[in-house]
Structure formats: C-alpha cells, structure tokens
Design a protein that fits this description.
Elements lengths: L1 H4 L3 E4 L6 E4 L9 H14 L1 E4 L6 H9 L4 E2 L6 E2 L2 E9 L24 E8 L7 E5 H6 L3 H7 L3 E5 L1 H4 L2 H5 L16 E5 L1 E3 L6 E3 L6 E4 L4 H15 L5 E4 L6 E5 L3 E5 L8 E8 L6
Parallel strand pairs: 2-3
Antiparallel strand pairs: 1-2, 3-15, 4-17, 5-6, 6-17, 7-15, 7-17, 8-14, 8-16, 9-10, 9-13, 11-12
C-alpha cells in the first residue's frame, strides 16, 4: 500500500474546506489503496481537486462509478452520445451562467445526490472560479441555542421554481442549455441539521436556491431565519475558491458543502462536463 500511495500529495486550500490532490492520474484504473486515499480526502475536506487530467467520457464515467451509481440529471442537456454526463456550458454571447448562486445539487430529491464530478474542457482566460463553503463549519459556528432550535426543524426543498416553466421567463438565455421544464415536480423534506451518512458529522442542510421554507411554516415566516442562515453559512472563513484550468476536476460532497460558480467572464466560453452520483435519504 505504501508504494501505491508514495506519489499522492494532498494540499488543503483552506482550513475549512477543499484540497488539491497531486500525483495521481484518475483516467487510469485506480488501485484499492489509491481509491481509499481519495475517498478519505473527500470525507476530510468536503471537496477535492485534481489538475492536468485528460479524461475521455468513458473514463469520466468510470471514475464517478467508483463512488456510486450515477444520477442522470433531468434538466441539463446531456453530452452527445453520453446521457450520463451533463453539459455545463456558457457561450460568449450568453449573460446567464448555470450555478451562479450558492446552492447544493439535487436537494429537491428525496435521496439527494451524494456528490458531483465536474471536469473542465474549456475555461476563460480569467474568471469562472467556483467558491465552496463548508456546511460542517457553518453548523459548528452556531450558538448552542441555535443548534438545538434548528435540530427540531425540517425544511422543504423544491425544483419547481428553479427548473420549471417560470425559468424560461426569468432566464431566457439558458433555454439551449436546460430542458424538461415539465419534469420539475420534485419536492422533498429534509432535516435542517443532518448527520452526514459517511463521516457522522453534523452539517447545516438548507441552501438559497432550492430551499423554499421550513416545514409547517409559511414562506414569509421562514424568510428571516433562512436569510440569517444563508448569510452565516457563506462567511469567508468557511470557504475556499478554486481557479479552473483546462483538465481540472472537482469532486464535491453535496451533503457537506455549497458551491457558487462565478459569472465574471462575459464574452468568453466555458465548457464543463458534470456527472452526479446518487445518494441516500438524509437523517
């Protein structure tokens, strides 16, 4: 095992979240020891990054499948010939990007996605970074009284207002990148504080895009507390920032972190391929 891991280096990006992993080619068939080291870093850091990778679609799929079954996204346009891979694209003439606010993927599903594997094929000369925020740290920094109060609450998450018919009115230039608005019928109720199914750590589990309200509360009643939690959870000390290069890969834990794709590269093209990994119900 020591020989298999001798070249792997793990470099944290911040004290709260994120680490780059060097010395490994994820296009190759990983040994059990190599995969165990990657999985351990994923659990420890919430999001891990690889540089200078060259993945075919089949290799991208094979790497994702080491972590679990693949969730086929209902709304993103698939890569031609590879329905398991979603295309995340912004053209030079488009103003709206995808993922341009704090969120976590698929929280509207009854069993939310475990994680996502995003691979950069084309990136702008400058800009297009992604921010990540640790929901472990966000929870841990709350007062004991707030922790106790939130532990009694559930929240309602939905896809309807994001991917439904109103999307075409609110964001008309994403029409060629997203589809199936009539499929946006997902609603799910999850605890506001979850116990992570793998690490056992407690994490805050609401997000500004998909969380609609607290279960049993109105949207108006929910808004002040949700706004406080969103402002709190995005504090800089809980975050890291990743600068993409062609061939970069990110694997993030949707149960433990938020992410935010910056939309600061107008007039340039950005093309990514994303695979989402199935998860389990949260408790």
């Amino acid at each position: 095992m020591a020989e298999a891991l001798v070249s792997i280096e793990i470099h944290p990006l911040s004290s709260a979240i994120g680490a780059e992993i060097h010395g490994i080619d994820i296009s190759a068939e990983l040994s059990e020891a190599q995969f165990a080291a990657i999985a351990r870093a994923y659990g420890d850091h919430g999001v891990i990054f690889f540089r200078d990778q060259r993945l075919t679609p089949d290799q991208h799929i094979a790497f994702a499948r080491r972590f679990g079954e693949i969730n086929v996204n209902r709304f993103f346009k698939p890569v031609n010939g590879f329905p398991l891979i979603a295309e995340v694209r912004k053209e030079p003439g488009q103003e709206t990007n995808i993922g341009g606010s704090w969120h976590t993927d698929h929280s509207y599903d009854v069993s939310p996605a475990m994680g996502s594997v995003l691979y950069a094929l084309e990136v702008p000369k400058t800009g297009g970074d992604t921010l990540f925020a640790s929901m472990y740290r966000a929870y841990e920094a709350l007062s004991e009284g707030m922790k106790a109060f939130l532990s009694s609450l559930d929240a309602v998450h939905s896809s309807r207002h994001v991917f439904g018919e109103t999307r075409e009115q609110d964001q008309p230039d994403v029409g060629d990148r997203l589809g199936n608005s009539d499929h946006a019928t997902q609603d799910a109720v999850h605890p506001v504080v979850i116990t992570h199914p793998t690490t056992g750590r407690k994490a805050l589990y609401v997000n500004p895009v998909f969380t609609v309200r607290f279960d049993g509360w109105s949207e108006e009643e929910s808004r002040p507390l949700l706004d406080f939690l969103y402002q709190h959870a995005s504090r800089p000390e809980f975050c890291c920032r990743f600068n993409w290069r062609r061939g970069s890969v990110a694997l993030w834990d949707n149960r433990a972190c938020w992410h935010y794709a910056l939309n600061d590269y107008h007039g340039e093209r950005r093309l990514m391929h994303r695979i989402t990994i199935e998860g389990v119900a949260l408790h």
